[in-house]
Amino acid sequence: MPGSAIVGSQLAAPGGFHVPEPWSGHITGAAVLFVSSNPSVDPAEAYPASSWDDERRADFFASRFDQRAVPWVDHRMRPLLATNPPAHREKGTRFWFAARARASELLERRATAGTDFALTEVVHCQSPAESGVAEAHATCVQTWLRRVLRAAPAPVIVLFGAHAKRAFGDLFGIQQGSPMTGPCDIEGPPASCCSCRTRTPGRPKPTATPSP
């Protein structure tokens, strides 16, 4: 099975198997959409598992960065842990910090996570260090990528890493290595695609600036 390696790479999580992550943030209204390889797994995070009902899962993914009494991710980009009482991780997530910095550059103002930008991946199951992504890539891209993009009217799409660039090259003919393409027809409204380098798998390099 194409996804067996990536599913098997997950460590035991407190609430059970972590369900695939469709996106994070209000994807239907965000001005910038980040696309990377796959989400990293954190067994300690309070994250949707098979035991969660659909309403709670939907709230998590759409409202993941919303600030409220006990947010899923706080303003310091620290995810909520599956602890009692609830607590956030000591340090924030570097990927989210870098995504916010890039969105702020593009919007020319401080971007709000989840509202100004949303995040998705070409492979939706979590794993450590992109484990299993290569095996699941073709199946996930063909099955889900177009559907996710139809839900996202963002005029700017930022591609992080080789897997995202390969997916957009295979589906839409966007040349790998091109810093900026667009506006072009992808799915839904025309969008410009920025291609960014990464330092490590799934980690964007915030100093890479797309050409106008």
Query: What is the correct CATH architecture?
Result: 3-Layer(aba) Sandwich
The DSSP helix count reads: 5
Regions with pLDDT < 50 over 5+ consecutive residues? 198-212
Mean pLDDT: 84
Show the helix and strand layout.
Elements: H1 4-8, E1 32-36, H2 54-62, E2 80-81, E3 87-88, H3 94-107, E4 117-121, H4 133-150, E5 156-160, H5 161-172, E6 180-184, E7 191-196, E8 198-200, E9 203-204
Parallel strand pairs: 1-4, 1-5, 5-7
Antiparallel strand pairs: 2-3, 6-7, 8-9
Q: What does this entry show, briefly?
A:
This protein has helices at residues 4-8, 54-62, 94-107, 133-150, 161-172; strands spanning 32-36, 80-81, 87-88, 117-121, 156-160, 180-184, 191-196, 198-200, 203-204. By secondary structure, the chain is of the alpha/beta class.
Features:
27% helix, Uracil-DNA Glycosylase, subunit E, 212 residues, disordered C terminus, 9 strands, alpha/beta, single chain, 5 helices, globular, two-stranded antiparallel ribbon, five-stranded mixed beta sheet
How would you portray this structure in words?
- It contains five helices and nine strands, in the order αβαββαβαβαββββ.
- The strands form three sheets. It has a five-stranded mixed sheet, with helices on both faces. It has a two-stranded antiparallel sheet with strand order 2-3. Strands 8-9 form a two-stranded antiparallel ribbon.
- With 212 residues, the chain is an alpha/beta fold.
- The chain has one domain: 3-Layer(aba) Sandwich (Uracil-DNA Glycosylase, subunit E).
- The C terminus is likely disordered.
